[in-house]
Amino acid sequence: MKKEERYRLMLEHFRREMPDADTELRYQSVFQLLVAVILSAQCTDKRVNLVTPQLFSRYPDARSMALAEPEDVLEYIGSVSYPNSKARHLVEMSRQLMEQHGGEVPADMNQLLQLPGVGRKTANVMQAVAFGRTAMAVDTHVYRVSHRLGLVPRTADTPLKVEKALMKNIPAADVPRAHHWLLLHGRYVCTSRAPHCDRCFLEAVCPKLLADSKL
User: Fold this and answer.
1) Fold classification of 3-21+136-212 (topology level)
2) What are the residue ranges of helices labelled H in 59-174?
3) DSSP code for 198
């Protein structure tokens, strides 16, 4: 099967079955979404959702978190991965938002990337989820599924290369949701260690390039 046909089948399925796909992180503002996405790096959304209610109750916005010290924030996020560095990044990020952006999260990609703790994946999530931009965030799930399904070539061996390959083949209108489609498919069906191929809608046409995705 040609790559174009595989994309067509995948997109048609997800448009029909998951038309309103969105992040599973819980938040009530753009700032809180940014905090949750930073916390989710190498950590599950489920774990992040367990710690953010108390964290956001104490620090609901950039102004309040900018006044904290990293050790204060650490008390709330100690159970996530890399809590010390994330606590430092959150405080530094909040202070930069206050100093340079009036406490608001900027929509500009370059300004997002200048914030402490924000890499390209996090910035793309914010672009797509918070601001409705045409951006493709590539995390471990998206990277793995894209390779296993043969959506990207073997030479796409970095998240940025996968991002560019997906952006080239997915219509702009679908891109913001496509990140969630691939992520959720990887989280619940095409899982890392034991993919549930019997539950996959692409089982009959999947090339099963498992060796190409080791994440």
Assistant:
1) Endonuclease Iii, domain 2 (1.10.1670)
2) 62-66, 70-77, 83-101, 109-113, 120-125, 140-148, 159-169
3) G
Tell me how many degrees the CA angle 12-17-22 measures, rounded to the nearest 5: 105
Under CATH, which number does the domain 30-130 receive? 1.10.340.30
The rounded distance, in Å, linking the Cα atoms of 150 and 65 is: 43
Structure tokens at 126: 């914010």
> Among all residues, which ones are annotated catalytic?
121, 139
| Tokens 């996968």, residue located | 162
State pLDDT tens for residues 134-158: 999 999 999 999 999 999 999 999 9
Stretch(es) of the chain classified as CATH 1.10.340.30? 30-130
What's the whole-model pTM score?
0.90
